[in-house]
Amino acid sequence: MRRGVPTIAVAGALLVVSATGGATAALVITGKQIKDNSVTSKDIKNRTLKTKDLAASTVAALKGNTGPAGPAGPQGATGPAGATGGFTGVERVSVDRDITASGDYYGSAFVTVPCPAGKIAVSGGYYLASSAVDIAVHTNRPNATGTAWEVYVRSTTSNFSAAFYALCANSG
Q1: Which Gene3D superfamilies does the record cross-reference, listed alphabetically (predicted)?
Q2: Distance (Å, rounded) from C-alpha 107 to C-alpha 87?
Q3: d(CA 100, CA 159)
């Protein structure tokens, strides 16, 4: 009978050590203590790694090729009707001008092309004769009220002829 008591005591002690041994080891061993490249895929439980656990280059390498396009979806509902109108009553208005060099401003002109009453300037511009050289256009825009087109041109070397125009449309 004496022989059975130490065997039971040893078996009990081994049971306690084996039951707490894994938990104790997990609390004691840190990542710094694990030798590099010693943990392999068989040591990692499946589906426990997340993309945040991987290097960015590894995550990028996981992306495959784009697959084929899926089938077209059903036709959507018809949207509401848009506003009617657009530009109506469009007309081109032009002003011809001969620009003569004078004083410190050389050949320069600020030209306003007015639209007819009830119309707004929706576009505009200019045409410079082939004799015009060294021309700078400083302004090419609608005026502040939108009822005319403004162009300011300047030549540092020569007199020239130009045509300035506005495209005017009904404002309502």
Answers
A1: 6-Phosphogluconate Dehydrogenase, domain 3
A2: 36
A3: 5
Q: Which amino acid is at 101?
A: A
DSSP 3-state assignment of 90? coil
Going edge to edge, which strands form the sheet with 107-114? 107-114, 148-155, 135-142
Under DSSP, the state recorded for 169 is: E
Residue 21 has pLDDT above 70, yes or no: no
- 150, 143 in Cβ contact below 8 A? yes
Cα–Cα dist 25/90, whole Å: 87
The beta strands (E) that lie in 31-159 are given as 91-99, 107-114, 119-128, 135-142, 148-155
Query: Which has the higher per-residue pLDDT, 59 or 133?
Result: 59
Q: pTM for this one?
A: 0.48
Residue 10's SS3 state is helix
159 vs 106 pLDDT, higher one: 159
Q: Are 144 and 66 in contact (CB under 8 A)?
A: no
How many angstroms separate the CA atoms of 23 and 58, rounded?
31
